[in-house]
Amino acid sequence: MHELKPYIELIKNGDVVAFPTETVYGLGADAWNPTAISKVFKIKGRPADNPLIVHVSDKEQVSQFASEISSRAELLMDQFWPGPLTLVFPKKPNVLDAITAGLDSVAVRMPDHKVALEFIRQTGPLVAPSANTSGMPSPTKADHVRTDFGINFPVVEGGATSIGLESTVLDLRPPTPTILRPGKIGPIELQEVLHEDIAISDHVESTDQPHSPGQKYTHYKPKAEVRYGAVDHIEENTLYLLQTKVYGDPSRVIHYQGDLELLSRELYDRFRQADRMGLAQIWIEDIAPYRQKSPSLALALSNRIEKSLSE
Ligand code: TXA
Ligand code: MG
Questions:
Q1: Ligand 1 atom with the shortest distance to the CA of 84
Q2: Are 184 and 163 in contact (CB under 8 A)?
Q3: pLDDT tens profile 266-288
Q4: Is the predicted pLDDT of residue 227 greater than 80, yes or no?
Q5: Which residues, 6 or more positions from 176, have their beta carbon under 8 angstroms from its beta carbon?
Q6: CB 18 within 8 Å of CB 149
Q7: CA gyration radius for the chain?
Q8: 51 alpha carbon to ligand 1 midpoint, in Å?
Q9: No. of H helices and E strands in the chain?
Q10: From the CA of 213, how far away is ligand 1's center (Å)?
Q11: Is any ligand 1 atom within 6 A of the Cβ of residue 28?
């Protein structure tokens, strides 16, 4: 395993270190150190009213942050942790305001990644937003982190992340559990465990009354204009993420054939690639016909694509 010791030292000294998870790379800081947390906001250029997710290495650590752990939460943690599911709990009074942006709730998850878990085991709970500068797509490779924060930025190397889209954020406080940000674990998977309806926040798209502060921020729009729909011919100066077989220059015509897992894994890297290549457009061919096989990923992908579209 990657030598973690120097990175653990950095965290213990109140510094910020990027590390891999199964979703995207996170920008980690000690969840009990307000100075370290303020560095996270500064480095990312993140608005102070957008709260952070606490990352834990075991379930017992949740009670340091949550004032109440419902039986629903217990069921979900048993079934999906470690994994890409963030749960929003009522917070304990001593949880730092910098984490929760002054809300009365705190979001917690346990990442399903060997390196991340070992790291957190040795540092204690870490806050970790995606390790990109605000306005860039979430990083799915260590190189993306270095592109955003500089070649010497401390990153625990972990290869490309396996899911590629951020975790599902689920609020368990309302009468109906509500998805605030869709991810790989979706309504169907949650229903199977909870045996009750799951709501999807109408504010999953940007609005002025968000339930999750992150919903109101403009997400990454590449310099290239993102287009979504059917594709029947190939134009110049465009990166294509295709499902069907229209052939063209393989450096910019990529075939997914309805493999939504692969598209999720690669989407943010492709956004960055189009901008590196200086292309004017990215065309993503309609994923709706392939929704059946992975409905939850289809929902998460649609949500991220929607946010990146040029109006
Ligand atoms: O997959 C992930 O969740 C990644 C990796 C690194 O774990 N992290 C991540 O963090 O995506 P970030 O900060 O980029 O997104 C956190 C989202 C934001 O939309 C934020 O508004 C929401 O979670 N959030 C955090 N705390 C919340 C709370 N108490 N109530 C509602 N939403 C919350
Ligand atoms: Mg983010």
A1: 1
A2: yes
A3: 999 999 999 999 999 999 999 99
A4: yes
A5: 196, 197, 198, 199
A6: yes
A7: 19
A8: 7
A9: 9, 13
A10: 9
A11: no
